[in-house]
């Protein structure tokens, strides 16, 4: 694997491929960022982009984590004081999860987003952008609530942050892609360059495999879960015994969330996965790559129940340090 392959590994898309290749060839000092609306606890969605940040740190990137307090406020997530408080706790959880604190810059949005220069640049982007474009960019980020003026301002601030944080690569889940496209189109109007973007896949709903996993509805795995909570949730996950003969549900595409969790959460962080099985069922299986595990699950060599057991153990190992952190905060 060359630098480009390592940077783009597991990405759902990069915009554009040529830009990502040029970045891979650029000398050290490259900066990448992700922004998160602070919420009390990390969930698997946060951890998926964090995995990419950890990989980029191994590639020599400097990483910026924007704790987007003003954005969370604009998206109706609570009072500003509450949000500020959760931002600090989230920072600790990211470090517990594995981000190298010496090579991660944590920035609170409100540190610069209220400065006069920033606000004037924001107004300039407001002049350039139609309400319908801003609304479309927010469709997958805002909840189901009625669109507000705050929701229209939000993506423009996200675009502007890319300029103010001076980063080379913007990382986000696929739900961020329309905001990033808006940023690419409008930033040149304030003489800033279009950011290169890398989007991570979305994990399907755990129990149905349809649509995407969400922390608001359905089952989601978070840093607060006990080992038993994780085992219970994973046990309920949709995971057909062999390659699904009918990969749709009422015409909707169905993914295997168990395989997705192995691919995007487990293998990026573990070099080897051991599936424990009693000798009478063939004994333990050891996998050094996601592909080998997928092949065995789809051929029937690896039973879903055994795969789920190994998945629950790995996820628990990943969240255990953060869970300790949260518990000691409560004490
Ligand atoms: C991500 C978010 C908010 C502001 C940002 C600014 C720059 C880069 C990324 C950012 C949060 C994100 C979410 N929109 O949905 O969590």
Automatic annotation (TrEMBL):
Record's keyword terms, sorted: Aminoacyl-tRNA synthetase, ATP-binding, Cytoplasm, Ligase, Nucleotide-binding, Protein biosynthesis
Compartmental location: Cytoplasm
Motif annotated as 'KMSKS' region, chain positions: 212-216
GO terms (BP aspect): tyrosyl-tRNA aminoacylation
Claim: ATP-binding is one of the keywords in the record: yes
GO CC terms, sorted: cytoplasm
UniProt keyword Nucleotide-binding, yes or no: yes
Catalytic activity line of the entry: tRNA(Tyr) + L-tyrosine + ATP = L-tyrosyl-tRNA(Tyr) + AMP + diphosphate + H(+)
Chief location bin: cytoplasm
Domain of life: Archaea
Biological role: Catalyzes the attachment of tyrosine to tRNA(Tyr) in a two-step reaction: tyrosine is first activated by ATP to form Tyr-AMP and then transferred to the acceptor end of tRNA(Tyr).
Protein's UniProt name: Tyrosine--tRNA ligase
Organism: Halobellus salinus
Lineage start: Archaea, Methanobacteriati, Methanobacteriota, Stenosarchaea group, Halobacteria
Underlying gene: tyrS
């Amino acid at each position: 694997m060359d630098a480009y392959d390592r940077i783009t590994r597991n990405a759902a898309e990069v915009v554009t491929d040529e830009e990502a290749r040029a970045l891979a060839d650029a000398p050290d000092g490259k900066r990448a960022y992700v922004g998160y609306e602070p919420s009390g606890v990390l969930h698997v969605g946060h951890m998926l982009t964090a995995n990419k940040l950890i990989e980029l740190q191994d590639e020599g990137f400097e990483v910026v984590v924007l704790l987007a307090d003003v954005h969370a406020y604009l998206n109706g997530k609570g009072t500003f004081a509450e949000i500020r408080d959760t931002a600090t706790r989230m920072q600790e959880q990211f470090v517990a999860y594995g981000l190298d604190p010496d090579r991660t810059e944590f920035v609170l949005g409100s540190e610069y987003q209220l400065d006069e220069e920033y606000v004037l640049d924001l107004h300039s982007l407001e002049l350039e952008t139609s309400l319908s474009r801003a609304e479309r960019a927010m469709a997958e980020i805002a909840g189901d609530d009625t669109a507000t003026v705050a929701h229209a301002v939000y993506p423009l601030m996200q675009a502007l942050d890319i300029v103010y944080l001076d980063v080379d690569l913007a990382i986000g889940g696929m739900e961020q892609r329309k905001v990033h496209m808006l940023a690419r189109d409008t930033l040149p109007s304030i003489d800033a360059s279009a950011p290169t973007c890398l989007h991570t896949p979305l994990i399907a709903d755990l129990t149905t495999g349809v649509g995407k996993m969400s922390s608001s509805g359905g089952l989601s795995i978070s840093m607060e879960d006990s080992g038993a909570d994780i085992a219970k949730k994973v046990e309920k996950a949709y995971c057909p015994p062999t390659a699904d003969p009918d990969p749709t549900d009422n015409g909707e595409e169905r993914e295997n969330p168990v395989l997705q969790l192995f691919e995007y959460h487990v293998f990026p962080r573990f070099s080897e996965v051991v599936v424990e099985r009693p000798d009478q069922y063939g004994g333990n299986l050891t996998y050094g790559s996601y592909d080998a595990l997928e092949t065995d699950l789809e051929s029937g060599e690896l039973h879903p129940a055994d795969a789920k057991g190994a998945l629950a153990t790995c996820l628990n190992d990943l969240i255990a340090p953060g869970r300790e952190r949260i518990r000691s905060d409560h004490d």
